[in-house]
């Protein structure tokens, strides 16, 4: 009778119809062996030559899809998988950005000049009167 090596899994060859997969050779495929033992999270013992993991811990029951289904992550919100960040689009060249900024600044300055031209200007007589009033106020203040 073969038992599953994963903690909290009570599957064995007599009671379940799942398949059992052996661990990779520790000497020949050291990286794969270490990866699988890390995923299982058992510190007190190491898988031996006859240790097996049932197909219930592999996505779709296939060994090639990777060891990822355990009781400890059964209540997780997100499914396990390759969580690669989304690809980003290339930013436009700086020359295009500076050209856009220049056109925006030019259009703003043109609108500003146009706004200033449309403001009503005081007549020459009003300017002269305002300066005379200012001069008289200063004389009275002293």
TrEMBL record:
PROSITE patterns membership: ZF_THAP
Ranges for domain THAP-type: 1-82
Signal peptide: none
Disordered: region residues: 74-95
ATP-binding is among the record's keywords: no
Single GO MF descriptor: zinc ion binding
Keywords on record: DNA-binding, Metal-binding, Zinc, Zinc-finger
Pfam families in the cross-refs: THAP (PF05485)
Protein name in the entry: Uncharacterized protein LOC116309087
Lineage: Eukaryota, Metazoa, Cnidaria, Anthozoa, Hexacorallia
Designated gene of the protein: LOC116309087
């Amino acid at each position: 009778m073969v038992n599953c090596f994963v903690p909290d899994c009570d599957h064995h060859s007599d009671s379940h119809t799942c398949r059992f997969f052996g661990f990779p050779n520790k000497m020949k495929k050291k990286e794969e062996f270490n990866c699988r033992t890390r995923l299982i999270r058992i510190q007190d013992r190491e898988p031996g030559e006859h240790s097996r993991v049932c197909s219930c811990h592999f996505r779709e029951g296939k060994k090639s899809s990777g060891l990822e289904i355990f009781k400890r992550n059964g209540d997780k919100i997100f499914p396990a998988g390759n969580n690669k960040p989304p690809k980003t689009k290339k930013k436009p060249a700086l020359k295009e950005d500076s050209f856009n900024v220049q056109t925006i600044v030019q259009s703003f300055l043109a609108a500003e000049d146009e706004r200033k031209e449309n403001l009503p200007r005081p007549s020459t007589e009003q300017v002269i009167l305002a300066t005379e009033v200012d001069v008289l106020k200063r004389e009275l203040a002293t």
